[in-house]
Amino acid sequence: MKKLLFLVIALAGLMFTSCENVIFDDEGDCSVNYRIKFRYDMNMKFADAFSNSVSSVHLFAFDPSGILVYHKTEAGDILKDENYAMDVDLEPGNYTLLAWCGLQGGDSFSLTNQITVGSTTIEELQCEMKKEYDDNNNAYSDDDLNSLFHGIQEVDLPNEPGTHTRTVYLIKNTNTVRVVLQHLSGVDIYPEDFIYEITDDNTYMAHDNKIIPDEEVDYYPWIISSGSAGIYADIYGVKATQVNVAVAEFTINRLVVENNPVLTIYNAKDNSRVLAIPLKDYALLVKGNYNKKMDDQEYLDRQDEYNLTFFLDEHGLWSTSRIIINSWHIVLQNPDLQ
């Protein structure tokens, strides 16, 4: 009887030792589990907004040679849980995890190549914004694009008992650009009197989220509307009043420092140009008001909404001395920006 008791105690000791005397996440055995969390804090609030912002996740795992070894997709309400993490069935080892988030439905973005586990390389995992073509074969988009996010992360998954969690950090690619036209004199402005467009070459993205030059695309507003705004005597020297303003809202793909997108507005009656500005340069005008140490690309990646208010003079042209960007009043002194 004593020998049997000693054998039971010895076996229990071996089992306990094999799990390295560590209890992992209340696990009662020596299983190895991996979970991937996604974090979207590359925003101006520096706070994780994943659960409120992301509708679908496509996760791809590549081995050290760059070959796809795993792919999993999840979408819907499960992502709204603040504790959400994706369970993945991977062997221990080193991987490059790549995530495209927001592809569900394929309405706005899609992968450019067929995905095959065991043969697709990481360089082949590219993403393209969907666009249309007019009668002159010019590419354009006038849609309210689905929010698109990208993330890439090197991870080491250990061969140790327990549940191991790794995090993929996301960047939001899509941006809202809201343009408001207001007359200095207080005359009402109507949105249908203008044609609005943003031109860029930013619809094709590599696996690392860099923009691949492809073709220029004209973004048009997905909605135009009227609004109201105040004209204040202490600023503009006219009687305080409420006036109608024109509002145009765009959704565009990622802004990058290498490109030079242009916002142009035309008079709809005679097609004369009201204004044309380098959108990226104007977006960066107020970067210093947020964080002077932030580099330009980080600011463009963190900021996903740009509100620009332009004031027209008595001739219906932009008064280049003043603009409001994201509530910051800017007095332009650089002639290269006018």
What does this entry look like structurally?
The protein contains six helices and 22 strands. A hairpin with a 5-residue loop joins strand 2 and strand 3. It has two domains: 31-172, Immunoglobulin-like; 175-337, Sandwich (Immunoglobulin-like), CATH 2.60.40.2090. Helices cover 12% and strands 41% of the residues. The strands form four sheets. The chain has a seven-stranded mixed beta sheet, with no helix packed on it. With 338 residues, it is mainly beta. Mean pLDDT is 87; it is low at 1-18 and 20-27.
What's a concise summary of this model?
With 338 residues, the protein is mainly beta. Helix content is 12%, strand content 41%.
